[in-house]
Design brief:
single chain, 24 helices, BirA Bifunctional Protein, domain 2, 9-stranded mixed sheet, globular, 6-stranded antiparallel β-barrel, 865 residues, alpha+beta
Length: 865
């Protein structure tokens, strides 16, 4: 049975049993910055399980795409070396939201495995939580599982909790026995860590609510959350032990072999590539772009790990983009989003491949520069980590470089830095379950801000220091939850409103507004005067000026998006935005920097739409209807079935829940202030509107007036005058450099050979030249090496209150005398650092009175070789 058939049968089975087939949610969790990636099927239903959201159905089934490559759930380092670790996998799951519970969940699982997929019952083993007698009775009694294939296991493996507090409950796991030819014992035994018995399905029974004291109280409507790895199930049904031997991976491994020129289809490197192309492609599809921070950093690590393995396998250039088409062939039918994004994914992977090749060169240059200040012979672990973390420069390449230069790498320090990074990522990847997350589903906030900027409201809840409280006093910082509000909560790139909550005798200044949960809006701020208690009637007043400026910037992003597609091409898609009352920032997919002419044309066309003063309309539509009409949507965003569509004349149509002007003319004017790249294939435009755009123009005009006065010319002649001055400066710099070389050469004397010493058969020249900069010393050192032939040249001097050292070693002597090591030892005597190549190095320090001693020590250093 093919993997695609296994997936379809799972979904069809549960659909036939009353479950709603819910599409896989994006890999970037919606409205949850605390979680790096979607790593389980239940993530998109978290608010439902917490009681903060309701769906139109109480049974669901999904084939959820997941990534585990960062934070607590990080399989990256094991991928390719084990049979079942992956960065990307699909989790098949069925869910009950207060509907059926243990009996029906167990019956569904057993029926589908044994009757639907035809697995022999005698090959299946079952575990339950050791205190879960109810589940045990169902398995042993109703399902007929024999006691010898059944085990009770403790809470560490068979009790699940969403966090320190909140929903929790026992688990029941189903294992498949791969047979006696594979090492390992049954679950629940000391030998259980082997590969013979593999967990394929986990049934979680959300039965209790755990409070802050650790007490478990039965839930009024217990729920079910199950998860089964598609790749593991495919291995079982296809009669293979390793997931990499299944049909999907075999096809990708073969494609990876062709792309890299590797004939060994059992190669670990090809397995790594086959796994990583899946996670890379789907992360890019869901809007993540390679970068040096956050999710983009994890994506970049995955791509570059695959590329490094590709080079090991035989690739000589970028190849990852060649694997997208084979992936689409295997998974495009089940994942139409991948088909739509194919070109974009290929472009991003090709660019990242080219950039990584450049990174290797860049890393070498950075390392060379750092070593000029190195004291000793050990490259610090934090430097190795920084090269890896910032530039993607592999630690093993740093170690190779060090060995060539007689240095070593502090790998223990590197591992400590890596561990610190993992700990930070792990801490950032947890669901946050503090008091602010416990607002009950009844406490929803109705938003009235599309029509009104003020209105009466009732205080439903107050949260101070992550704890709900009955009242707050003057000076207290808190979150206020109202039954209705005109304040816009931060979402869709638009910041939250500012303003005040006012009541008789008191005032609360709102500095930010955001969602605590689905439709629960929190007003963050401070009590300016009086005290505020629950159930108080307040008047909520939005800062109208700030809202108006923010709305203008938001509407301008819609026009900008449409114009960018017109000027640059239909491939342009929004990748992110930030809209506040001061400016707008718009990120979009595009491979090349915009030319000046393109920027001017975009600015002109946006202003043309502003002057057209078209009506800005909003209406609610079904999501399918909106997309059918061509409404633009943000990649990675989760939309409800009913969506809000914003139109601007016939020019722009987008799904958007933000606030906007009533007519495009209300934007006033539009001015682009910057354009640049932020990641592979992603550009960023920053712009101003209205009064801010006017002020920016005035400031630029005043700057030009001042420059014209300084350069003693008219504004119309500024460019010509600046070009002329720049040319003159370059000419003078070249003359200065030439004269410095002549002065340095003239200071060498006519017969440097007369000052040569011989130590251990090595000719060495040591001289001091003060008031010569480092460039001049290097020129002198190179010329002396040329004139002397086989020799070691050490020059020192003092300039600008600092001691400088340069060392040159002729090529024939570098095996016995390393210039970088010599200058590193000498630099210690002047209170500094040094390093470099075997034939050329430099160093220095602030301790100028140690320079003569350093130069005098050269013969002793050579004598110790």
């Amino acid at each position: 049975m093919k993997t695609r058939e296994i997936r379809k049968q799972f979904l069809d089975y549960f659909a036939a049993n009353g479950h709603e087939i819910v599409s896989s949610s994006p890999l970037v969790p919606h409205n949850d910055p605390t979680l790096l990636f979607t790593n389980a099927g239940m993530v998109q239903f978290k608010d439902v399980f917490l009681g903060q959201d309701k769906r139109a159905y109480n049974r669901a089934v999904t084939a959820q795409r997941c990534v585990r490559a960062g934070g607590k759930h990080n399989d990256l380092d094991n991928v390719g070396y084990t049979a079942r670790h992956h960065t990307f996998f699909e989790m098949l799951g069925n869910f009950s939201f207060g509907d059926y519970f243990k009996r029906e969940a167990i019956e569904h699982a057993w029926t589908l495995l044994t009757e639907g997929y035809g697995l022999p019952a005698e090959k299946l083993w079952v575990t339950v939580f050791d205190e879960d007698d109810e589940a045990a009775d169902i398995w042993l009694g109703d399902m007929g599982v024999p006691a010898e294939r059944f085990a009770r296991i403790g809470a560490s493996d068979n009790f699940w909790a969403m966090g320190d507090t909140g929903p929790c409950g026992p688990c029941s796991e189903i294992f498949y026995d791969h047979g006696p030819e594979v090492a390992g014992g049954p679950p629940g035994t000391p030998e259980a860590d082997g590969d013979r018995y593999v967990e394929i399905w986990n049934l979680v029974f959300m039965q209790f609510n755990r409070d802050a004291d650790g007490n478990d109280t039965p839930l009024p409507k217990p729920s079910v959350d199950t998860g089964m790895g598609l790749e593991r199930l495919a291995a079982v049904l296809q009669g293979v032990h390793s997931n990499y031997e299944t049909d999907l991976f075999v096809a990708l491994i073969k494609a990876a072999g062709e792309a890299t020129g590797c004939d060994d289809l059992n190669s670990t490197s090809l397995r790594v590539i086959a796994d990583h192309i899946r996670s890379s492609a789907f992360l890019i599809t869901d809007g993540v772009v390679p970068s040096n921070e956050g999710r983009g950093y994890v994506l970049r690590r995955i791509i570059r790990r695959a590329i490094r393995h590709g080079y090991q396998a035989g690739a000589s250039g970028p190849f990852m983009h060649k694997l997208v088409a084979p992936l689409v062939e295997e998974m495009g039918e089940a994942c139409p989003e991948l088909v739509e994004a194919q070109q974009r994914v290929e472009e991003a992977l090709a660019i990242e491949g080219e950039r990584f090749a450049q990174t290797l060169g860049q890393g070498m240059r950075i390392l060379e520069q750092e070593l000029t200040e190195l004291s000793g012979t050990v490259i610090p672990g934090d430097l190795t980590f920084r090269l890896y973390d910032t530039f993607g420069f592999p630690a093993d390449l740093t170690a190779d470089y060090a060995r060539e230069r007689g240095l070593t790498v502090d790998m223990e320090g590197f591992e400590e830095a890596m561990t610190g990074q993992r700990d930070r990522a792990r801490a950032a990847s947890q669901f946050r379950m503090e008091g602010v997350a416990k607002v009950s589903i009844e406490e929803r906030t109705d938003f009235s801000g599309y029509e009104h900027l003020d209105g009466n409201a009732t205080v439903l809840s107050l949260v101070a220091e992550d704890t709900e409280t009955e009242s707050i006093s003057e000076g207290a910082e808190a979150l206020v939850i109202l039954d209705t509000t005109p304040f816009y909560a931060e979402s869709g790139g638009q910041v939250g409103d500012k303003g005040f909550l006012i009541w008789p005798g008191g005032r609360f200044e709102v500095s930010d507004v955001h969602f605590l949960a689905h439709k629960v809006i929190a007003h963050a701020g401070k009590v300016v005067s009086g005290s505020l208690a629950k159930d108080t009637q307040v008047n909520a007043e939005v800062n109208a000026q700030s809202r108006s400026a923010t709305a203008a910037n938001h509407s301008a992003t819609h026009l900008l998006h449409a114009v960018l597609q017109e000027v640059l091409g239909a491939h342009v898609q929004q990748r992110g935005s930030l809209v506040n009352n001061e400016r707008l920032r718009f990120d979009f997919s595009h491979g090349d920097a915009m030319s000046g002419a393109e920027i001017n044309e975009v600015e002109r066309l946006v202003n043309q739409q502003v002057r057209a003063n078209n009506d800005v309309g909003t209406r609610l539509m079904k999501l399918e209807d909106a997309r059918a009409q061509g409404a633009a949507a943000l990649f990675g965003e989760r939309y409800e079935e009913d969506v809000r569509v914003v139109s601007m004349g016939e020019f722009s149509l987008e799904l958007c829940g933000g606030t906007h002007v009533r007519r495009t003319g209300d934007i006033g004017s539009f001015r682009i202030i910057s354009e640049g790249g932020i990641a592979a294939g992603v550009r960023r435009v920053e712009a101003l509107t209205g009064e801010a755009a006017y002020v920016h123009g005035v400031n630029e005009s005043e700057t030009l007036n001042r420059l014209a006065a300084v350069l003693k010319t008219g504004r119309s002649d500024l460019e010509e005058r600046a070009t002329s001055l720049s040319t003159r400066v370059r000419e003078l710099e070249r003359k200065v450099e030439h004269l410095q070389g002549q002065l340095a050469a003239g200071g060498m004397g006519d017969d440097p050979a007369s000052e040569i010493q011989e130590v251990n058969g090595i000719r060495v020249l040591v001289k001091r030249y003060d008031d010569v900069d480092i460039k001049g010393l290097r020129v002198m050192m190179d010329r002396l090496k040329d004139r002397l032939g086989s020799a070691v040249v050490v020059l020192g001097g003092v300039q600008n209150g600092k001691a400088t050292l340069v060392v040159g070693v002729s090529k024939d002597l570098t095996d016995c005398c390393h210039a970088g090591k010599l200058v590193a030892d000498l630099a210690v005597k002047v209170g500094g650092k040094g390093g470099g190549r075997p034939d050329s190095a430099q160093g220095g320090g602030a301790k100028i009175d140690g320079l003569d001693g350093a130069l005098a020590d050269v013969p002793h250093w050579l004598g110790s070789l």
